[in-house]
Amino acid sequence: MKKWFQKTLIVAVAFLTLGAISPNHHLWTSFQDKDSAKHSEQPPKNDNYPFELADPYFYDQYEEQPSLVDESLIASAKELSYMKFGTKIGPVIATEFDEVIFPKIEEAIHVTLESSGDLHKRRLAITEKPAGDYAEKIFNVYDLADGKDLIRFHVRTEKRPQDGYFYNFHYHTADDAFVAHHSIGDIYWSKNTPPKWLS
After folding, report:
1. Domain coverage including residue 130
2. Are residues 77 and 164 in the same domain?
């Protein structure tokens, strides 16, 4: 096809469709000459493609697969945790929570939700308000379609004789009707009675 006609056609279509079909669209490659350097029906022939299963290419493919769990869900989980801690507890336990507890919370979310076979069909959400006073609830992850919880994260204040107060982080899953107690870890507070959550 004549070059001037092809260029005119590209400009006209881009103008008429308000840029919805751009000049880089695959439609235009069919108008290019067969002997053009940009248009080739077959890649250059090379019969030597050595690879093994130990090739890094295969590892990269699996390591770089996107997670099925939305990262905004993880960010909301951290935000809700700090909301529960409030301004009195948060600054005291923040470092240990960030370094030890939250990575385990994130891992528990990924493992629990990705083990669910139909996760890609679900629309997941996270509860918006943690419980105050001395209640345990931090947040729940639930399915928007049926409103049922999939995983619940809690923190319990425990008084241990001679040692003082600890915060025990744990979670429950829908797999066992939220009966089993899956421990994440403990953070030491002090021998003094801790303040209420959200304070």
Report:
1. 73-188
2. yes
Q: What is the pTM of this model?
A: 0.65
**What's the mean pLDDT when you consider all of the chain?**
78
Which of 116, 169, 178, 118 has the alpha carbon at shortest distance from 149? 178
Express each pLDDT in 34-81 by its tens digit: 555 554 555 555 444 444 444 444 444 434 444 556 788 889 999 999
Domains held by the chain: number: 2
3-state SS track over the chain: CCHHHHHHHHHHHHHHCCCCCCCCCHHHHHHCCCCCCCCCCCCCCCCCCCCCCCCHHHHHHHHCCCCCCCHHHHHHHHHHHHHHHHHHHHHHHHHHHHHHHHHHHHHHHHHHHHCCCCHHHCCEEECCCCCCECCCEEEEEEECCCCCEEEEEEEEEEEECCCEEEEEEEEEEHHHCCCCCEEEEEEECCCCCCCCECC
Average pLDDT over residues 28-37: 54
In a domain, 194, yes or no: no
